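Subject: Sanity check before I submit

Could someone independently write out the structure tokens for this chain? I want to compare against mine line by line before I put it in a report. The sequence has 242 residues.
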Amino acid sequence: MIKAKYNNVLLKLSGEALMGNTPYGIDPKALGYLAEELHKVKSNFDLRISIVVGGGNIWRGADYEEQGMDRSVADSAGMLGTMINALAIQDSLERRGVPVRTLSALSTPSVAEPFIRRRALRHLEKGRVVILAGGTGNPYMTTDTAAAQRSLELNSELLIMSKNNVDGVYTADPNKDENAKKFDHLTPIEALAKRIQALDSTALSLCMDNDLPIIVFDIFNSGSLEKILLGNKVGTLISNSK
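---
Independent answer below. Compare away.
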């Protein structure tokens, strides 16, 4: 086993990361790549890793709210989208021999265990990857916020957030503005003041108040997850101190 700088981390995957080159849903190639990256680090490091996955590749509650749908109902549908993604990741990891447990904030006993903190901690102690679905189980709360909350509940040392086609936090969307500049480091206060769109403000505030560092990166840069665990500089670090 390689000695890592971080031994207990939470990885936030956006739903869009599973889309790959498809316009909707799950791209088997993207899913396979993610599973291979996770399998690699789980095999090489003595690591406790939990995953929160979004559902934007299937359903975005905010989009349907704009069309007149009740926000609470729209967000509940989005939580079900995260369940689909969680089960897909679970299956792909298990086919590679990685022990996995999926826990859900929603009551779905036929496909996932309920999220109980002590149960999740026990799974991590036994070396299992813990996938956390259903967000927080509440409307108006993004999966970024769920990732921050679960990181704190599971005693994570670091929240790692993979964004779609973006390898960090920029002054503007680098896919639209060629003059956008990347930040190597920000404090949460600076990120909030600059109204950084890459991260939810509630998640930022939660991490700031509890001194939980965040690294924003692109997992599709091969080997980047392993570099983060080793303590190498990857993406953008958001922390109260450098």
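---
OP: Matches mine. For the report I'm noting this point. The chain has a mean pLDDT of 94.
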